[in-house]
Amino acid sequence: MKLQVTTACMGHGRCYSLAPQLLESDDEGFVTIRGGDSIEIPDDQRELAVELAGTCPESAIIVTDA
Amino acid sequence: MEPGTISEVKGDEVTGCPVMHQDFSQTRNLGDYWALANELREGCPHFYNKYSGGGYWVFTRHEAVKDIYKTPEIFSSESITPWEPNPIYRFVPTQVDAPDHIKYRRILNPWFSPKAMEAAAPMMRELCRNFIEPLVAKGRCDFIEDFALLYPTAAFLNVIGVPVSYTEQFAEWVDMFFGGFGGDPEGAENMATALSEMRAFWTEQLATRRGKPHQEGDLFTYLLNSTFDDKPLDEEVLLDMCTVLTLAGLDTTRAELGYMFHHLAINPEDRQKLIDDPELAPLAVEETLRYYTIIFGDGRKVTRDIEFHGVQLQKGDMVYALVSGANRDPRHWERADEFVIDRKKNNHFGFASGPHRCLGMHLARREMAIAVQEWLSLIPDFELDSDVQLHERGGGAMMALERLPLRWELGS
Q1: Hey, what's the torsion of the CAs at B127, B128, B129, B132, to 10 degrees?
Q2: How far is CA B242 from each of CA B108, B183, B238, B278, rounded to the nearest angstrom?
Q3: Distance CA B412, CA B408 (A)
Q4: Which residue would you say has higher pLDDT here, B331 or B397?
Q5: What is the DSSP letter of A2?
Q6: Mind listing the pLDDT tens digit for each residue in B41-50?
Protein backbone atom coordinates (compact mmCIF):
# COMPACT_ATOMS: atom_id res chain seq x y z
CA MET A 1 0.00 0.00 0.00
CA LYS A 2 1.01 3.64 -0.54
CA LEU A 3 1.00 6.62 1.80
CA GLN A 4 0.86 10.19 0.50
CA VAL A 5 0.75 13.55 2.26
CA THR A 6 -1.13 16.41 0.61
CA THR A 7 -0.31 20.12 0.89
CA ALA A 8 -2.93 20.29 3.65
CA CYS A 9 -0.11 19.23 6.04
CA MET A 10 0.38 22.00 8.60
CA GLY A 11 3.26 20.45 10.48
CA HIS A 12 1.47 19.03 13.52
CA GLY A 13 4.12 16.32 13.66
CA ARG A 14 1.93 13.52 14.95
CA CYS A 15 2.67 11.24 11.97
CA TYR A 16 6.44 11.38 12.12
CA SER A 17 6.42 11.15 15.92
CA LEU A 18 4.37 7.96 15.68
CA ALA A 19 6.45 6.44 12.84
CA PRO A 20 9.93 7.96 12.76
CA GLN A 21 11.08 4.88 10.83
CA LEU A 22 8.81 5.89 7.92
CA LEU A 23 8.49 9.68 8.01
CA GLU A 24 10.75 12.64 8.73
CA SER A 25 10.27 16.37 9.25
CA ASP A 26 11.85 19.32 7.47
CA ASP A 27 13.37 22.38 9.15
CA GLU A 28 9.96 24.00 9.63
CA GLY A 29 8.26 20.91 11.03
CA PHE A 30 6.38 19.80 7.92
CA VAL A 31 6.61 16.16 6.93
CA THR A 32 9.26 15.88 4.19
CA ILE A 33 6.96 14.14 1.68
CA ARG A 34 4.36 16.93 1.99
CA GLY A 35 2.69 17.47 -1.39
CA GLY A 36 5.22 15.23 -3.08
CA ASP A 37 6.24 11.62 -3.36
CA SER A 38 4.42 8.71 -1.83
CA ILE A 39 6.06 6.01 0.24
CA GLU A 40 5.50 2.25 0.13
CA ILE A 41 4.07 0.75 3.31
CA PRO A 42 4.99 -2.89 3.91
CA ASP A 43 1.99 -5.22 4.22
CA ASP A 44 2.72 -5.96 7.86
CA GLN A 45 2.45 -2.23 8.72
CA ARG A 46 -1.05 -1.74 7.36
CA GLU A 47 -2.48 -0.95 10.82
CA LEU A 48 0.22 1.67 11.41
CA ALA A 49 -0.64 3.40 8.11
CA VAL A 50 -4.28 3.63 9.15
CA GLU A 51 -3.22 5.06 12.53
CA LEU A 52 -1.06 7.66 10.78
CA ALA A 53 -3.99 8.79 8.63
CA GLY A 54 -6.16 8.89 11.75
CA THR A 55 -3.74 11.00 13.73
CA CYS A 56 -3.63 13.95 11.30
CA PRO A 57 -5.95 16.84 12.27
CA GLU A 58 -5.77 18.16 8.69
CA SER A 59 -6.74 14.83 7.07
CA ALA A 60 -3.62 15.35 4.96
CA ILE A 61 -2.54 11.69 4.92
CA ILE A 62 -3.96 9.48 2.19
CA VAL A 63 -3.45 5.74 2.25
CA THR A 64 -4.28 3.73 -0.87
CA ASP A 65 -3.99 0.11 -1.87
CA ALA A 66 -1.76 -0.07 -4.91
CA MET B 1 -23.89 24.28 35.53
CA GLU B 2 -26.99 26.26 36.41
CA PRO B 3 -30.24 24.79 35.15
CA GLY B 4 -32.08 26.68 32.47
CA THR B 5 -29.07 28.52 31.08
CA ILE B 6 -29.89 27.25 27.61
CA SER B 7 -33.13 28.67 26.33
CA GLU B 8 -35.28 26.79 23.87
CA VAL B 9 -36.83 30.12 22.90
CA LYS B 10 -35.95 31.05 19.35
CA GLY B 11 -34.43 34.48 18.92
CA ASP B 12 -36.25 36.97 16.71
CA GLU B 13 -33.33 37.43 14.38
CA VAL B 14 -32.01 33.88 14.49
CA THR B 15 -34.70 31.63 13.17
CA GLY B 16 -34.40 28.02 14.21
CA CYS B 17 -31.34 28.46 16.41
CA PRO B 18 -31.47 28.22 20.21
CA VAL B 19 -30.33 31.32 21.99
CA MET B 20 -28.28 31.30 25.17
CA HIS B 21 -26.80 33.89 27.49
CA GLN B 22 -23.57 32.39 28.71
CA ASP B 23 -20.58 34.14 30.24
CA PHE B 24 -17.49 32.08 29.52
CA SER B 25 -15.20 34.33 31.54
CA GLN B 26 -16.45 33.09 34.93
CA THR B 27 -14.42 30.88 37.22
CA ARG B 28 -16.22 27.56 37.68
CA ASN B 29 -15.67 24.28 39.44
CA LEU B 30 -13.04 21.98 37.95
CA GLY B 31 -14.48 20.15 34.95
CA ASP B 32 -17.58 22.31 34.57
CA TYR B 33 -16.48 23.80 31.26
CA TRP B 34 -16.11 20.37 29.62
CA ALA B 35 -19.46 19.33 31.07
CA LEU B 36 -20.98 22.50 29.60
CA ALA B 37 -19.36 21.76 26.23
CA ASN B 38 -20.82 18.23 26.27
CA GLU B 39 -24.24 19.59 27.13
CA LEU B 40 -24.16 22.23 24.41
CA ARG B 41 -22.91 19.75 21.78
CA GLU B 42 -25.56 17.17 22.56
CA GLY B 43 -28.22 19.88 22.82
CA CYS B 44 -27.78 21.44 19.40
CA PRO B 45 -25.10 21.71 16.67
CA HIS B 46 -25.22 25.50 16.95
CA PHE B 47 -26.34 28.25 19.30
CA TYR B 48 -26.51 32.00 19.26
CA ASN B 49 -24.90 33.41 22.39
CA LYS B 50 -26.26 36.86 23.24
CA TYR B 51 -24.71 39.33 25.61
CA SER B 52 -25.44 42.99 26.21
CA GLY B 53 -24.45 44.80 23.06
CA GLY B 54 -23.72 41.83 20.87
CA GLY B 55 -23.69 38.16 20.21
CA TYR B 56 -22.00 35.39 18.27
CA TRP B 57 -22.60 31.94 16.83
CA VAL B 58 -21.34 28.87 18.63
CA PHE B 59 -20.70 25.67 16.64
CA THR B 60 -20.52 22.75 19.00
CA ARG B 61 -19.66 19.63 16.97
CA HIS B 62 -16.52 18.19 15.48
CA GLU B 63 -17.54 18.48 11.85
CA ALA B 64 -18.32 22.21 11.98
CA VAL B 65 -15.22 23.00 14.07
CA LYS B 66 -13.11 21.15 11.53
CA ASP B 67 -14.70 23.09 8.65
CA ILE B 68 -14.14 26.43 10.38
CA TYR B 69 -10.44 25.61 10.72
CA LYS B 70 -10.23 24.32 7.15
CA THR B 71 -11.62 27.47 5.52
CA PRO B 72 -9.62 30.44 6.82
CA GLU B 73 -10.68 32.42 3.74
CA ILE B 74 -14.23 32.46 5.17
CA PHE B 75 -13.30 32.44 8.86
CA SER B 76 -10.75 35.18 9.42
CA SER B 77 -8.44 35.34 12.43
CA GLU B 78 -8.70 39.14 12.60
CA SER B 79 -10.33 38.54 15.99
CA ILE B 80 -10.15 35.24 17.87
CA THR B 81 -12.37 36.38 20.76
CA PRO B 82 -16.02 36.45 19.60
CA TRP B 83 -17.10 38.66 22.52
CA GLU B 84 -14.53 41.25 21.38
CA PRO B 85 -14.52 41.59 17.58
CA ASN B 86 -12.07 44.53 17.76
CA PRO B 87 -9.52 43.81 20.52
CA ILE B 88 -6.99 46.31 21.88
CA TYR B 89 -4.08 44.00 20.99
CA ARG B 90 -2.95 42.52 17.69
CA PHE B 91 -1.15 39.19 17.80
CA VAL B 92 1.26 38.57 14.92
CA PRO B 93 0.95 36.16 13.19
CA THR B 94 -2.10 34.84 15.11
CA GLN B 95 -4.44 37.56 13.89
CA VAL B 96 -2.95 37.91 10.41
CA ASP B 97 -4.68 36.27 7.44
CA ALA B 98 -3.36 35.08 4.08
CA PRO B 99 -1.28 36.03 2.17
CA ASP B 100 0.90 37.65 4.86
CA HIS B 101 0.35 35.03 7.53
CA ILE B 102 2.51 32.32 5.99
CA LYS B 103 5.39 34.78 5.48
CA TYR B 104 5.52 35.42 9.22
CA ARG B 105 5.15 31.75 10.00
CA ARG B 106 8.07 30.86 7.74
CA ILE B 107 10.24 33.18 9.84
CA LEU B 108 9.11 31.67 13.13
CA ASN B 109 8.55 27.99 12.26
CA PRO B 110 12.23 26.93 12.24
CA TRP B 111 12.80 28.43 15.70
CA PHE B 112 10.06 26.23 17.20
CA SER B 113 10.47 23.17 14.95
CA PRO B 114 10.73 19.62 16.29
CA LYS B 115 14.43 19.59 15.43
CA ALA B 116 15.06 22.81 17.36
CA MET B 117 13.10 21.45 20.34
CA GLU B 118 15.03 18.19 20.22
CA ALA B 119 18.20 20.24 20.56
CA ALA B 120 16.73 22.18 23.50
CA ALA B 121 15.50 19.05 25.31
CA PRO B 122 18.57 18.45 27.53
CA MET B 123 18.36 22.07 28.77
CA MET B 124 14.63 21.66 29.51
CA ARG B 125 15.22 18.40 31.34
CA GLU B 126 17.85 19.97 33.56
CA LEU B 127 15.67 23.00 34.34
CA CYS B 128 12.78 20.70 35.09
CA ARG B 129 14.77 18.62 37.57
CA ASN B 130 16.02 21.81 39.22
CA PHE B 131 12.44 22.83 39.94
CA ILE B 132 11.36 19.39 41.22
CA GLU B 133 14.35 18.45 43.37
CA PRO B 134 13.79 21.07 46.10
CA LEU B 135 10.16 19.93 46.38
CA VAL B 136 10.86 16.23 46.96
CA ALA B 137 11.71 16.49 50.67
CA LYS B 138 8.74 18.77 51.40
CA GLY B 139 6.21 16.00 50.85
CA ARG B 140 3.64 18.44 49.50
CA CYS B 141 3.30 21.44 47.22
CA ASP B 142 0.90 23.49 45.23
CA PHE B 143 1.68 22.05 41.83
CA ILE B 144 0.57 25.18 39.95
CA GLU B 145 2.39 27.79 41.99
CA ASP B 146 5.49 25.77 42.86
CA PHE B 147 6.05 24.09 39.52
CA ALA B 148 3.63 24.60 36.61
CA LEU B 149 3.90 28.41 36.58
CA LEU B 150 7.68 28.36 36.80
CA TYR B 151 9.12 25.52 34.74
CA PRO B 152 7.45 26.27 31.37
CA THR B 153 8.26 29.97 31.81
CA ALA B 154 11.92 29.25 32.49
CA ALA B 155 12.14 26.76 29.61
CA PHE B 156 10.49 29.21 27.23
CA LEU B 157 12.72 32.14 28.25
CA ASN B 158 15.73 29.90 27.70
CA VAL B 159 14.50 28.88 24.25
CA ILE B 160 14.16 32.52 23.14
CA GLY B 161 17.29 33.84 24.83
CA VAL B 162 15.98 35.85 27.81
CA PRO B 163 17.65 35.34 31.21
CA VAL B 164 15.75 32.83 33.36
CA SER B 165 15.87 35.37 36.22
CA TYR B 166 12.86 37.07 34.61
CA THR B 167 10.69 33.99 35.20
CA GLU B 168 8.56 35.42 38.02
CA GLN B 169 8.04 38.77 36.32
CA PHE B 170 6.74 37.03 33.21
CA ALA B 171 4.49 34.71 35.17
CA GLU B 172 2.87 37.79 36.74
CA TRP B 173 2.31 39.61 33.42
CA VAL B 174 0.76 36.56 31.86
CA ASP B 175 -1.57 36.07 34.80
CA MET B 176 -2.68 39.71 34.63
CA PHE B 177 -3.28 39.56 30.89
CA PHE B 178 -5.46 36.48 30.98
CA GLY B 179 -7.52 37.94 33.81
CA GLY B 180 -9.04 40.22 31.15
CA PHE B 181 -8.76 38.20 27.95
CA GLY B 182 -11.89 36.14 28.52
CA GLY B 183 -14.17 39.18 28.56
CA ASP B 184 -14.38 39.84 32.31
CA PRO B 185 -14.64 43.67 32.59
CA GLU B 186 -12.93 43.64 36.00
CA GLY B 187 -9.82 42.22 34.40
CA ALA B 188 -9.63 44.76 31.58
CA GLU B 189 -7.42 47.25 33.40
CA ASN B 190 -4.88 44.63 34.48
CA MET B 191 -4.79 43.31 30.97
CA ALA B 192 -3.93 46.75 29.58
CA THR B 193 -1.25 47.28 32.25
CA ALA B 194 0.36 43.91 31.55
CA LEU B 195 0.37 44.62 27.81
CA SER B 196 2.06 47.99 28.18
CA GLU B 197 4.66 46.71 30.66
CA MET B 198 5.50 43.78 28.43
CA ARG B 199 5.84 46.04 25.42
CA ALA B 200 8.19 48.30 27.35
CA PHE B 201 10.30 45.27 28.25
CA TRP B 202 10.46 44.03 24.65
CA THR B 203 11.20 47.55 23.34
CA GLU B 204 14.21 47.68 25.62
CA GLN B 205 15.36 44.16 24.70
CA LEU B 206 15.12 44.99 20.99
CA ALA B 207 16.91 48.35 21.40
CA THR B 208 19.99 46.76 22.97
CA ARG B 209 20.27 44.31 20.09
CA ARG B 210 19.51 46.49 17.09
CA GLY B 211 22.27 46.55 14.45
CA LYS B 212 23.91 43.43 15.83
CA PRO B 213 24.32 40.17 13.88
CA HIS B 214 22.27 37.14 14.83
CA GLN B 215 23.62 35.49 17.95
CA GLU B 216 23.07 31.76 18.38
CA GLY B 217 20.09 31.06 20.63
CA ASP B 218 18.81 34.63 20.68
CA LEU B 219 15.38 35.05 19.09
CA PHE B 220 15.57 38.87 19.07
CA THR B 221 18.70 39.20 16.97
CA TYR B 222 17.22 36.50 14.73
CA LEU B 223 14.01 38.51 14.25
CA LEU B 224 15.88 41.80 13.82
CA ASN B 225 17.86 40.17 11.00
CA SER B 226 14.80 38.54 9.38
CA THR B 227 12.99 40.04 6.41
CA PHE B 228 9.39 40.28 5.26
CA ASP B 229 9.01 40.95 1.51
CA ASP B 230 12.75 41.73 1.50
CA LYS B 231 12.39 44.40 4.18
CA PRO B 232 13.26 44.23 7.87
CA LEU B 233 10.31 43.63 10.22
CA ASP B 234 9.00 46.89 11.57
CA GLU B 235 9.00 47.73 15.26
CA GLU B 236 5.25 47.33 15.77
CA VAL B 237 5.26 43.87 14.20
CA LEU B 238 8.25 42.82 16.27
CA LEU B 239 6.50 43.94 19.46
CA ASP B 240 3.26 42.22 18.47
CA MET B 241 5.18 39.02 17.78
CA CYS B 242 7.05 39.09 21.08
CA THR B 243 3.83 39.73 22.98
CA VAL B 244 1.94 36.82 21.53
CA LEU B 245 4.88 34.45 21.87
CA THR B 246 5.04 35.26 25.56
CA LEU B 247 1.33 34.98 26.20
CA ALA B 248 0.86 31.83 24.19
CA GLY B 249 4.04 30.19 25.35
CA LEU B 250 3.68 30.42 29.08
CA ASP B 251 0.13 30.24 30.31
CA THR B 252 -1.03 27.40 28.11
CA THR B 253 1.57 24.89 29.17
CA ARG B 254 1.02 25.58 32.85
CA ALA B 255 -2.69 25.04 32.32
CA GLU B 256 -2.29 21.72 30.50
CA LEU B 257 0.25 20.53 33.07
CA GLY B 258 -2.21 21.31 35.85
CA TYR B 259 -4.93 19.15 34.33
CA MET B 260 -2.52 16.38 33.44
CA PHE B 261 -1.15 16.13 36.97
CA HIS B 262 -4.62 16.33 38.45
CA HIS B 263 -5.50 13.33 36.29
CA LEU B 264 -2.36 11.47 37.40
CA ALA B 265 -3.05 12.27 41.06
CA ILE B 266 -6.48 10.65 40.93
CA ASN B 267 -5.69 7.85 38.45
CA PRO B 268 -2.82 5.81 39.92
CA GLU B 269 -3.16 3.14 37.22
CA ASP B 270 -2.29 5.68 34.50
CA ARG B 271 0.57 6.94 36.64
CA GLN B 272 1.87 3.40 36.93
CA LYS B 273 1.74 2.91 33.16
CA LEU B 274 3.93 5.98 32.73
CA ILE B 275 6.33 4.84 35.45
CA ASP B 276 6.63 1.41 33.79
CA ASP B 277 7.08 2.93 30.34
CA PRO B 278 8.28 6.57 30.30
CA GLU B 279 8.26 6.41 26.48
CA LEU B 280 4.47 6.48 26.74
CA ALA B 281 4.65 10.13 27.86
CA PRO B 282 4.21 11.71 24.38
CA LEU B 283 0.98 9.77 23.73
CA ALA B 284 -0.29 10.61 27.22
CA VAL B 285 0.41 14.27 26.48
CA GLU B 286 -1.62 14.13 23.24
CA GLU B 287 -4.53 12.52 25.04
CA THR B 288 -4.34 15.23 27.71
CA LEU B 289 -4.57 17.82 24.95
CA ARG B 290 -7.67 16.11 23.57
CA TYR B 291 -9.51 15.13 26.71
CA TYR B 292 -8.50 18.06 28.89
CA THR B 293 -8.27 20.67 26.15
CA ILE B 294 -7.89 24.14 27.63
CA ILE B 295 -9.33 25.81 24.54
CA PHE B 296 -13.00 26.04 25.38
CA GLY B 297 -13.55 27.53 21.93
CA ASP B 298 -11.74 29.45 19.21
CA GLY B 299 -13.18 32.61 17.65
CA ARG B 300 -13.18 33.73 14.01
CA LYS B 301 -14.70 36.62 12.05
CA VAL B 302 -16.85 35.84 9.00
CA THR B 303 -15.54 37.41 5.77
CA ARG B 304 -18.63 37.02 3.55
CA ASP B 305 -22.27 36.05 3.66
CA ILE B 306 -22.52 32.27 3.60
CA GLU B 307 -24.72 29.41 4.72
CA PHE B 308 -22.68 27.24 7.03
CA HIS B 309 -23.92 23.99 8.60
CA GLY B 310 -27.51 25.18 8.34
CA VAL B 311 -26.92 28.71 9.62
CA GLN B 312 -27.00 31.85 7.47
CA LEU B 313 -23.90 33.80 8.45
CA GLN B 314 -23.29 37.39 7.47
CA LYS B 315 -20.06 39.21 6.79
CA GLY B 316 -18.69 40.58 10.06
CA ASP B 317 -20.44 38.00 12.28
CA MET B 318 -18.31 36.33 14.91
CA VAL B 319 -18.28 32.56 15.33
CA TYR B 320 -16.96 30.41 18.16
CA ALA B 321 -15.71 26.93 17.25
CA LEU B 322 -16.27 24.89 20.40
CA VAL B 323 -13.01 22.94 20.46
CA SER B 324 -13.83 21.38 23.82
CA GLY B 325 -17.06 20.06 22.29
CA ALA B 326 -15.32 18.72 19.19
CA ASN B 327 -12.54 17.01 21.15
CA ARG B 328 -15.07 14.80 22.96
CA ASP B 329 -17.69 14.47 20.20
CA PRO B 330 -18.87 10.83 20.11
CA ARG B 331 -19.78 11.30 16.43
CA HIS B 332 -16.05 11.46 15.77
CA TRP B 333 -14.25 9.64 18.59
CA GLU B 334 -14.24 6.08 19.79
CA ARG B 335 -14.46 6.07 23.60
CA ALA B 336 -14.92 9.85 23.39
CA ASP B 337 -15.49 10.34 27.10
CA GLU B 338 -12.60 8.21 28.31
CA PHE B 339 -8.99 9.19 28.86
CA VAL B 340 -7.18 6.59 26.74
CA ILE B 341 -3.56 7.05 27.69
CA ASP B 342 -2.10 5.34 24.59
CA ARG B 343 -4.62 6.62 22.03
CA LYS B 344 -2.93 6.70 18.64
CA LYS B 345 -5.55 7.96 16.18
CA ASN B 346 -5.59 11.27 18.01
CA ASN B 347 -6.36 14.06 15.54
CA HIS B 348 -7.55 16.42 18.29
CA PHE B 349 -7.82 20.21 17.91
CA GLY B 350 -6.05 21.01 21.19
CA PHE B 351 -3.48 23.00 19.18
CA ALA B 352 -6.16 24.20 16.71
CA SER B 353 -5.72 23.20 13.10
CA GLY B 354 -5.33 24.82 9.71
CA PRO B 355 -2.68 27.45 8.98
CA HIS B 356 -2.89 28.91 12.51
CA ARG B 357 -2.09 25.67 14.29
CA CYS B 358 -0.15 26.42 17.44
CA LEU B 359 3.36 27.59 16.60
CA GLY B 360 4.71 26.43 19.96
CA MET B 361 3.16 22.96 19.88
CA HIS B 362 6.47 21.14 19.58
CA LEU B 363 7.83 23.11 22.53
CA ALA B 364 4.73 22.53 24.63
CA ARG B 365 4.64 18.78 23.99
CA ARG B 366 8.30 18.42 24.76
CA GLU B 367 8.00 20.42 27.99
CA MET B 368 5.03 18.35 29.10
CA ALA B 369 6.54 14.96 28.29
CA ILE B 370 9.74 15.92 30.11
CA ALA B 371 7.75 17.18 33.12
CA VAL B 372 5.90 13.87 33.41
CA GLN B 373 9.02 11.76 33.05
CA GLU B 374 11.13 13.78 35.48
CA TRP B 375 8.38 14.23 38.08
CA LEU B 376 7.55 10.53 38.12
CA SER B 377 11.21 9.57 38.40
CA LEU B 378 11.56 11.75 41.52
CA ILE B 379 8.02 11.66 42.97
CA PRO B 380 6.37 8.51 41.64
CA ASP B 381 3.43 8.37 44.06
CA PHE B 382 1.33 11.38 44.90
CA GLU B 383 -2.27 12.29 45.59
CA LEU B 384 -4.50 15.32 46.10
CA ASP B 385 -3.63 17.04 49.36
CA SER B 386 -7.10 18.25 50.08
CA ASP B 387 -10.69 17.46 49.33
CA VAL B 388 -11.67 21.09 48.85
CA GLN B 389 -13.40 21.99 45.61
CA LEU B 390 -10.87 22.97 42.93
CA HIS B 391 -11.64 25.76 40.48
CA GLU B 392 -10.78 26.57 36.91
CA ARG B 393 -10.40 29.94 35.25
CA GLY B 394 -13.04 30.72 32.64
CA GLY B 395 -12.87 29.09 29.24
CA GLY B 396 -12.89 32.45 27.47
CA ALA B 397 -9.24 32.86 28.35
CA MET B 398 -8.39 29.16 28.09
CA MET B 399 -9.19 27.08 31.13
CA ALA B 400 -6.58 26.74 33.85
CA LEU B 401 -6.63 25.15 37.28
CA GLU B 402 -6.02 27.87 39.84
CA ARG B 403 -4.54 25.57 42.50
CA LEU B 404 -3.54 21.93 42.68
CA PRO B 405 -2.39 20.87 46.17
CA LEU B 406 -0.49 17.56 46.02
CA ARG B 407 1.13 15.42 48.74
CA TRP B 408 3.34 12.37 48.80
CA GLU B 409 5.05 10.11 51.32
CA LEU B 410 8.61 11.10 52.07
CA GLY B 411 11.05 8.50 50.80
CA SER B 412 8.37 6.91 48.67
Answers
A1: 120
A2: 11, 22, 6, 34
A3: 7
A4: B331
A5: E
A6: 999 999 999 9
The structural domains of chain A, with segments of one domain joined by +, span 2-64
Q: Which CATH architecture has domain A2-64?
A: 2-Layer Sandwich (3.30)
Domain spanning B6-407, CATH class: mainly alpha
Alpha carbon B197 to chain centroid distance? 22
Q: Which of A29, A54, A55 has the CB atom closest to B114's CB atom?
A: A29
Question: Using CA atoms, how far apart are residues B150 and B241, in angstroms rounded to an integer?
Answer: 22
Asked if the model's pLDDT at residue B30 lies above 80, the reply is: yes
What average pLDDT does the segment B86-97 reach?
A: 89
ipTM for the whole complex: 0.94
Taking CB atoms and an 8 Å cut-off, how many pairs form between chains A and B?
58
- For B220, residues 6+ apart whose C-beta sits below 8 A from its C-beta are B160, B161, B205, B206, B209, B242
Q: How far apart are the C-alpha atoms of B310 and B323, rounded to whole Å?
A: 19
Contact B346 A14 (CB under 8 A): yes
Neighbours of B211 (CB within 10 A): 8
- A6 in reach of chain B (CB within 8 A): no
d(CA B243, CA B246) in angstroms, rounded, equals: 5
User: What is the distance between the alpha carbons of residues B343 and B318, in angstroms, rounded to a whole number?
Assistant: 33
CA atoms of B11 and B48, how far apart (whole Å): 8
**pLDDT, mean over chain B:** 92
The pLDDT of residue B179: 77
